[in-house]
Amino acid sequence: MRVLFSSTFGYGHVLPMLPLAKAFGTSGHSVLWATSAQAIPQLAAAGIATAPAGLTGEELHRGLELLHARAAQVAPSQRAAFMFPRLFGALLTPPMAHDLLALARRWHPDLLIHEHGELASPLVGAVLGRPSVTHAFGGAIPAEIVRSAAEAVEPVWAAHGHEPPPYLGCFTSLYLDICPRSVQSVPMGHVPRTQPLRPASPRTMQPPRDDTPLVYLTLGTVQNQSPVLPLVASALATMPIRLLVAVGPDGDAHQLSGLPDNVRIEKWVDQAEIIDQCALVVSHAGSGTFLGALAAGRPQLCLPMAADQFRNAAGGKRVGAVLVLEPDDVSPESVVQAATRLLTEESFLLQARAVSTEIAEMPSPSEVVEVLAALPG
């Protein structure tokens, strides 16, 4: 079976699909991954065959700059609704549709799988008569946001002689849901058929390696330039903890200079390994970090700033596994107070472990490969 994966360029959109792509390869299927040039080195290092597709270089950089400048004028909690149709719809889909369709006509895939921010795959599947499966990169995207993206992309479908189906065809075949049901904060009535998929490998609860708790702080790879990072790091550094701060591949470690000896600063870490060792995760509630911490049964302090982070934080708060500080509530005092509660009140740990058990019981990538291989062509 020939499986064509496709994604946009962001780490948070690429990494969630890697386990499934590897599982297809291990099962003897042929895998090709189409994505922006920026993501190809990471995929190549993971042993995945790749093909460049979609917007890249200066044109992508310029488009992102303009969108982020406009988004800065929007309330943080509303930025996802503003950005998704403009970025993933209007900006990225037209060039990706052109490149992905040409690639698919050459490679002849039996199945297409795309992350939910890559919206050209359903069109390519419709043109070629192949199933196109949507892979979540976190919790579900609200119906109204997907509908807004559909309006932006409708001319691309029309140019290929097709009328777009509801929600751009993202849910016509199957939706691979990596978000455990207990923390899903979006109504799923617009998604007719879902297949749960474990977002991370099952974890063994490890006792702390040191009497002094390790706290892991990250704002991911998009919000990592925010002034919130040094503020939070400085506050946490005053506590009787060991603090590990990951600033991201393009992050500036110098903004954290002058912190005491209990702080270690890295650009990039093996996040799964670090989370297994830590007592608390403090982050922007990006889906990768959020679900990774839950998979390991770790309590979290969530500092949502944009995108799906507010939805993730809301789901974690609802089950009692996290505390949330909204943007206007972040201060040195509030950070220390929340972190102290999360480290000392056992209820947060117990609820996080309950979600970890739920995640461990979700179907593995290899099990989902069998489901997908049986989809009608």
Q: How many domains in all?
A: 2
Q: What percentage of the residues does DSSP assign to strands (E)?
A: 5-15%
* Residue share in helix: 40-55%
Distance between the termini: 11 Å
What is the CATH topology of the largest domain?
Rossmann fold
Describe this structure in words.
It is built from 15 helices and 13 strands. It is of the alpha/beta class. The mean pLDDT is 92. The protein folds into two domains: 2-198 and 362-373, Rossmann fold (3-Layer(aba) Sandwich), CATH 3.40.50.2000; 214-360, 3-Layer(aba) Sandwich (Rossmann fold). Helix 2 crosses helix 15 and helix 4 (57-71) packs antiparallel against helix 5 (79-91). The protein has a seven-stranded parallel beta sheet with strand order 3-2-1-4-5-6-7, sandwiched between helices.
